[in-house]
Amino acid sequence: MVHRDVKSTNILLDEHFLAKLADFGLSKSFPVGSESHLSTVVAGTPGYLDPEYYHTKWLSEKSDVYSFGIVLLEIITNRPVIDQTHQRPHIAEWVGHMLTRGDIKNITDPNLQGNYDSGSVWKAVELAMSCVNPSAAGRPNMSSAVQELKECLKSENSRAGGSRGTESKSSVELSTEFTTELFPKPR
After folding, report:
1. Concatenated DSSP letters for 139-160?
2. pTM
3. Structural domains in the chain plus CATH codes
4. Confidence at 86, pLDDT banded by 50, 70, 90
5. Among 23, 19, 18, 30, CA closest to 6
6. Alpha helices (runs of H) in the chain, residue ranges in sequence order
7. Contacts 24+ apart (CB under 8 A), 80-85
8. So what's the pLDDT on residue 168?
9. 103 tagged catalytic
10. Using the 8-state DSSP alphabet, how is residue 137 labeled?
């Protein structure tokens, strides 16, 4: 199943701050078998849309990985996906340019005021940038991306004085506890 419209406004938080993906109106399922892609009419939100899918009309499981990488960049930077007031209007383009300067402080959300482990943020930015690789072959699969995010969280938690118990989890910790439910629970 490929969602085709992974974006920040389609990620909802429940009462325990667990992330839930919403709006499956554009989703497509792959035929059973060894198909690695599906040819389809391009659909999705500008800025989040996998450029390879846009050009080839071949949808793959890594199309959602691209969109997820854009969401990660939004979270890390607190910037809009497309900002026409900048020379590099797309967030991935802007972060890529900023990375050449080597200063993570100018990439991260200024509201964090430097209160983070720079190593874990570097790793998260590198992960996000690998997710937005223009070629699907260069992107990690979603399981690998989740594992790397958990490593970032582990590093951040060790900086904060050790692992937190389940009763005091941060929203980041809670959002990395993914479930494999195929159908949403009734509300």
Report:
1. SPPHHHHHHHHHHHHHHHHHHT
2. 0.76
3. 8-175 (1.10.510.10)
4. confident
5. 23
6. 51-56, 61-77, 91-99, 118-131, 142-159, 171-175
7. 81/7, 81/47, 81/48, 82/46, 82/47
8. 39
9. no
10. G
